[in-house]
Specification:
alpha+beta; 5-stranded antiparallel β-sheet; 182 residues
């Protein structure tokens, strides 16, 4: 399968792993060695200035961290600041995991940015297998979806995935939002 980098993985409605129920995961990298993604609609938590004082980093603003997945790892960021990007996921959307870049992003407020604690990971061939088994539905990502704070993102992406699937199955160019009105 081609790389899914820059695509959403939309959890199937029958997903039972509590980490991934109604998850929308942005794939930030995929190679022959596996894949990595972050849950863009995961729960977020604000880090108070008190908590920041007890950390080795500081930020002039209140920070929100998103649950990126169950695998422990470095802080990661998806953002729109090209100068701090380590990998371009989509035009104008970048990924960073190097500490100096993530910390610099914490200090800036002018560009869209999400900071993630944890990530989702797959071994060689595992993600392709799970997609084929229907655990995940694949949808191209758009910047406005990545940076939105909409709690209904999973529903929106599930609907988009269903429309894409229908278009492919029935060789249709357009599926109306409400086929009953057609």
């Amino acid at each position: 399968m081609n790389s899914l980098q820059g695509h959403f993985l939309v959890a199937a409605s029958h997903q039972r792993d509590p980490n991934f129920i109604h998850a929308a995961i942005l794939v930030v990298g995929q190679t022959g060695r596996g894949a990595v993604g972050v849950i863009v609609n995961g729960a977020s938590k604000e880090c108070s200035r008190f908590q920041q004082r007890n950390c080795r980093w500081r930020s002039p603003q209140r920070l929100r961290f998103s649950f990126g997945g169950p695998v422990t790892g470095p802080l990661m960021a998806v953002h729109a600041k090209a100068s701090l990007g380590e990998r371009e996921l989509l035009p104008g959307v970048f990924f960073s995991a190097k500490e100096k870049n993530v910390f610099a992003l914490m200090w800036q407020a002018e560009q869209p940015c999400k900071i993630f604690l944890g990530y989702a990971g797959w071994g060689p061939g595992q993600l392709d297998y799970e997609v084929q088994q229907g655990v995940w539905r694949v949808v191209p990502a758009a910047p406005e979806q990545i940076f939105c704070e909409d709690r209904d993102l999973w529903e929106q992406l599930s609907s988009q995935a269903s429309r894409l699937q229908l278009r492919i199955m029935f060789h249709m160019r357009h599926i109306p939002a409400d086929p009953l009105l057609n």
